[in-house]
Write a structure and sequence with these properties.
313 residues, alpha/beta, 2 domains, eight-stranded mixed sheet, elongated, binds uridine-5'-diphosphate, binds magnesium ion
Length: 313
């Protein structure tokens, strides 16, 4: 019987320091696994020496290949490109910075052999992250799970193993706004959770900042929920009902007591309040509309500049 094969998909953006460390760790871990494995790095438009380092790694060990994108598209797009180039019986998605310990891969493979299609890694502890980042992450997961039908596991990154069945399903979802965690959850299949302790970065710097995280959160919520749109409807209806009764009160008062021109402050309050709500609602519609605009242009999700497939040594 042929050995099962596993493709390891690794998004890389300016990671020249960690690439060699990653190579060593993966080689050491995979030695103990009874699978045919290959690594596909995705160079997400790095501006440092990452591409050269990948080439050296490929020349030294043919099981490492790479796909280089034409510019920086973002991690979600790098993952998409990597998964599109996967062909093995299973694919593992892992960060190159060693925050996702490769030592978990054998356990993932074991769970896959016992019949699971998706084995995802959930962190027990987040080392080296600030209290605010933890709190905002928490809030985000609660919000998105409350607003959408899909269930995204908390404290779970992209680190996971997917059977061919599962990753082919993910690859069929060609939407432009790619919130991968949501897509992974959306496809379903038999899922298993493994717990691990997330390490601090081995070297280099995180590519995230609060601006990026905010856009990421908006992408996630708008891709999987209409609740913000409905929210505008509910507020609008509530305000309209209030306004109706308030109008009735004013008419009655004017009929009974006559009109003595007061009410400038209350007018201002109502105008500003409604103006604020209307602009917010327009903004929400705009978030969805902009994403529909992206979809309607039908551009490719990413562009490949160079593909150096693993050559299985
Ligand atoms: N990454 C990428 N494209 C980007 C940003 C990040 O491919 O535009 C990769 C990065 O090289 C790493 C992974 O995505 O392998 C996670 O990035 P990072 O460690 O910066 O995120 P964090 O772990 O801080 O959430
Ligand atoms: Mg990281």
């Amino acid at each position: 019987m042929p050995m099962p094969s596993v493709d390891i998909i690794v998004p890389v953006f300016n990671e020249q320091e960690v690439l060699p460390l990653f190579q060593e760790r993966i080689q050491a871990v995979m030695q103990s696994c009874d699978v045919d494995w290959r690594v596909i790095f995705v160079d997400d438009g790095s501006s440092d020496e990452s591409r050269e380092v990948m080439r050296q790694i490929h020349d030294a060990d043919g099981r490492f290949g790479f796909v280089a994108l034409s510019r920086n598209f973002g991690k979600e797009y790098a993952l998409t490109a990597g998964l599109d180039h996967a062909s093995a019986d299973a694919a593992v998605v892992i960060d190159v910075d060693l925050q996702d310990p490769p030592e978990l891969i054998p356990d993932m493979i074991a769970a896959w052999h016992s019949g699971y299609d998706v084995v995802y890694a959930t962190r027990k502890v987040r080392h080296g992250e600030s209290a605010t980042k933890k709190a905002t992450a928490n809030l985000f997961y609660r919000a998105i799970n409350a607003m959408s039908k899909i269930d995204i596991p908390k404290d779970t990154g992209d680190y996971r193993l997917m059977s061919k069945k599962a990753y082919t399903a993910v690859n069929k979802l060609r939407e432009r706004n790619r919130f991968m965690k949501g897509l992974f959850a959306w496809v379903g299949f038999k899922q298993k959770q493994l717990l691990f302790e997330r390490e601090p970065r081995a070297a280099g710097q995180t590519k995230w900042n609060y601006g990026k995280l905010w856009r990421f959160a908006l992408d996630g919520i708008t891709s999987f929920s209409y609740v913000p749109l409905r929210f505008a409807t509910w507020i609008g209806m509530t305000v309209a009902i209030f306004a109706f009764f308030y109008g009735a009160v004013i008419i009655a008062k004017t009929l009974i007591l006559g009109n003595d021109v007061p009410g400038y402050p209350s007018l201002m309050v109502v105008i500003l309040f409604l103006g604020g709500i209307q602009l917010t609602a327009l903004g929400i519609i705009g978030e969805y509309l902009g994403r529909m605009f992206d979809e309607s242009k039908q551009r490719p999700i990413y562009l490949v500049e160079e593909y150096q497939p693993p050559t299985d040594s």
